[in-house]
Amino acid sequence: MIRHLITLIWNQRKQNGWIFAELTLVLFAIFMLTDVYYSKYILYHQPLGYDITRCWRLHLEEVEPGTQGYIGEKERGAKCWKRITELTNRLMSTDDVVAVGSSFNSCPYSQGNSWNTIAPAGADSTNASPQTLHSQVGDVGYFEVFNIHDVNGKRIRDVENPAKSQVIITEKLAEKFFANQDPRNRLVDTGELDVSPVLAVAPTIRETDFVPATASFYIKASGALMEEFFQWYSPKDMEYTIRMKRDMTQDEMETWLASLGDGLTSGNIYVNAVTSFEEMRSQRINTVMTEMQMSQLICVFLLLNVFFGITGTFWMRTQARRSETGLRMALGASKRKVVSWLNAEGLLLLLLATVPIAIIVLNMHHMDLLASEVSYSIGRWCIEISISLGIMALMILLGIAVPAYWIMKEQPAEALHYE
Questions:
Q1: How far is Cα 129 from Cα 125, in angstroms, rounded to an integer?
Q2: DSSP code, position 155
Q3: In 6, 200, 209, 281, which residue has its Cα 20 to 30 A from 180's Cα atom?
Q4: Residue 393 has what pLDDT?
Q5: 335 pLDDT exceeds 80?
Q6: Residues 334/328, Cβ–Cβ less than 8 Å
Q7: What is the Cα–Cα distance from 46 to 212, expressed in whole angstroms?
Q8: What pLDDT digit, counting tens, does each position of 80-106 carry?
Q9: Would the pLDDT of 325 be above 80?
């Protein structure tokens, strides 16, 4: 049957040539749209490298001088960190809290912008060149709040030295610096800690749901480093985070905090407000989706034009072959067989159009012109081309089905009358 269809297509090559060119061009356009949106879909569902379930940010403020409750001078350095440690101990003493953490420009969805240079200090590295990468700085509680642990399953608290600030690198950075070697206890040089052994290897993180994973590293800050930070930063600059044991709404969380009363105040520092990380995530996603709306509208407009173009082409093609279908029925072909023949011929033209598409896509992949947020593979190509072919096949079948339905209702003699 396929040989017979190819013969029919070749005998009408003048008309089919234009249809083939149209199918190739439209299939390529739909494939590129599919590639963009499918890669975003895959990226959205990839692991983030952290967990924000039941996580909240507590916003700290200081009592202003001259106002009620002000105690002495502004607290900085070791005194400031001592006050925050007191708050942490009070929160951890309750039955509703899993962990409390402190960090600077490092929380998910906070748009933190902290960059530092890191380089392997030993001679056993496969890539000794310094890298300027996104870094996250937080105490050991920060890792427990966001459930960040070593890829071997060990908690950071179980392997840390509380008296030292230590470096934790992500899997992508470990692969870049040490390839297949175990990076733990190997020396790296950072702008914050100079030469320090790698404490652990954490999962590679993504800043948001629509950003691909990149190499980065953490600094697990000791109390001494946190005291040093507070020489320049105020408490409101710090990201004070908490993980609860149960899910809470915004009102429930505010009610729970209010029940602690003066327990949320230490010296001049107090908890002023609370924000859910789930809400922060929703806001970031909504921002991205709003930015994508214009491109989505353009894509919808393009697909509508493609739909009417392809459907109209095969509608007219089927209508123009009215006498041919009448002759086939007059020679004994059933109506179902004639419709199957028309559908198979249209779909075969579509499949033939995938040959130049495959060549074009391979060249575009070689030149890195395809969406690069996620790695390209044969599986991804098969899924994208299948989606594209499915969309095109529906348009072709619809363009054939409606005129074929009216032709099948006619008697063969009536169809041949027009010939």
A1: 9
A2: B
A3: 209
A4: 93
A5: no
A6: no
A7: 9
A8: 999 999 999 999 999 999 999 999 999
A9: no
Do 211 and 50 meet the contact criterion of CB atoms below 8 Å apart? no
Q: How do beta strands 115-120 and 239-244 pair?
A: unpaired
What DSSP letter does each residue of 187-229 carry, written as one string?
EEEETTTEEEEEEEEEPP--SSTTS----EEEEE--HHHHHHH
115: Cβ–Cβ under 8 A, 6 or more apart, which residues? 132, 133, 134, 135
User: Two tokens at 64?
Assistant: 């202003």
First to last CA, the chain: 26
CA distance 67 to 70: 6
| DSSP SS3 for 313 | helix
- Nearest 5°: CA angle at 294, between 293 and 296? 65
Q: Which range has highest mean pLDDT (32-46, 141-155, 323-337, 405-419)?
A: 141-155
Under the banding of pLDDT at 50, 70 and 90, the label for residue 317 is: confident
Q: Does the CA dihedral 46-49-51-52 come out positive or negative?
A: negative
- 165 close to 225: Cβ distance less than 8 angstroms: yes
3-state secondary structure of 139: coil
Contact call for residues 410 and 326 (beta carbons, < 8 A): yes
Buried b (16+ CB within 10 A) or exposed e, 397-410: bebbbebbeebeeb
314 near 402, Cβ under 8 Å? no
